[in-house]
Design brief:
With 148 residues, this protein is an alpha+beta fold. 29% of the residues lie in helices and 16% in strands. It starts with a helix and ends in a 12-residue tail after the last helix.
Length: 148
């Protein structure tokens, strides 16, 4: 489905920024932060504020998911449209050294008990450690501040 139709299907106006950001997130299939998106050549013509506002409107419309890492940074991944994008119902891996987040697709989310009468709106699991590149470079894990 083309991005203009996806945007219209959720009641959003189809602006160039929304189309480009959504298409990029659908094609990459990985969660990316505002800062990572700003550095992408495909998005360099879109200013920082527009990227922030676009991500917020796409999130409110249910077209992207937000995942907050231990580093406090929000990353965004597209909700799949016809099997493209980050389905979200799987764990994500965060490298505590370089900050790169990746999808751990094809893995089931763990089952958890919820209170009687509660409605589950979504699941999120973040696995953290050192990515293969950082581990190969011998980088150690920084001390994590659990209080923040």
């Amino acid at each position: 489905m083309e991005t203009a139709k996806i945007l219209h299907s959720v009641g959003l106006r189809s602006t160039q920024a929304r189309q480009v950001v959504l298409q990029f997130l659908l094609s990459t299939g990985q969660p990316l932060s505002h800062q990572e998106l700003e550095k992408q050549p495909a998005l360099e013509h879109i200013d920082r504020v527009t990227i922030y506002r676009t991500l917020e409107s796409l999130h409110k419309a249910g077209l992207v998911r937000r995942i907050r890492g231990l580093d406090g940074v929000w990353r965004f991944c597209a909700v799949p449209q016809k099997s493209v994008g980050c389905p979200g119902n799987h764990p994500h891996f965060l490298c505590v050294s370089c900050g790169r987040m990746t999808c751990l697709k094809g893995q089931e989310m763990p089952w958890v008990d919820v209170p009687d009468g509660a409605t589950v709106l979504g699941k999120q699991l973040l696995v953290y450690g050192l990515c293969p590149d950082c581990a190969a470079q011998g980088k150690g894990a920084p001390s994590l501040d659990w209080e923040s």
